[in-house]
Amino acid sequence: MKKILLLCLSMMLSLSAMAQETSAGEKRAQIEKAKNERVAKEKKAKAKKEAEVAKEKKEAAAKKEAAKAKATKEKTDARAKVADKKAKETKETADKIKADKAKSDKAKAAAKAKAAKAKESSASATGAAKAAAGKAKAAGNKAEAAANKTEAKSKVKKKTPAEIKEDVKETAASKAAEKQVKDKATGMYNGKKVYTGPRGGRYYINKNGNKTYISDDK
């Protein structure tokens, strides 16, 4: 009987220990589960936050690229407008220059034709005028030669042989003056060189270094 009681007591203690162990295991399992759930929740929240940040960055980058593309398009359009305007102005200028040149060429052709006609019509008049001018020049030269001859004669002063001899003496003044004479020597007069001036007058350099004119018959 006593053995049976001990056996029963032993079984009760074993069952109690098993129950306590089962309870502890369940508690540990619950704690582990709660921990795993918390970790999973934190990971999910972190992933969500990272996704939101990535989305915001992507949207910001997209907006920046869109703004940049818009600015580039506006700049390109502005340049295109300026280029079109410049090309239009250049074409207008070229057309104007072309029109002005055509007008100028036409005016030049008309003026050339008019000048040719005037030249042709005045050819005979020019010939007559040249002939008259030649005759007038010849007559003028003849009259000038006569006047020069008369002038030279009027400058001649008759001197006595003694005065002439005294006047033709070689002196330092006469030698110096002769070196300055640019007219051509055309003869001799009482041992002195005779020079002919541009108007036909004949003279020599006297002792004082001055010109003394002589008549053509000497």
Automatic annotation (TrEMBL):
<feature type="compositionally biased region" description="Basic and acidic residues">
    <location>
        <begin position="24"/>
        <end position="108"/>
    </location>
</feature>
<protein>
    <submittedName>
        <fullName>Colicin import membrane protein</fullName>
    </submittedName>
</protein>
<feature type="compositionally biased region" description="Basic and acidic residues">
    <location>
        <begin position="150"/>
        <end position="185"/>
    </location>
</feature>
<feature type="signal peptide">
    <location>
        <begin position="1"/>
        <end position="19"/>
    </location>
</feature>
<feature type="region of interest" description="Disordered">
    <location>
        <begin position="21"/>
        <end position="201"/>
    </location>
</feature>
<keyword id="KW-0732">Signal</keyword>
<feature type="compositionally biased region" description="Low complexity">
    <location>
        <begin position="121"/>
        <end position="149"/>
    </location>
</feature>
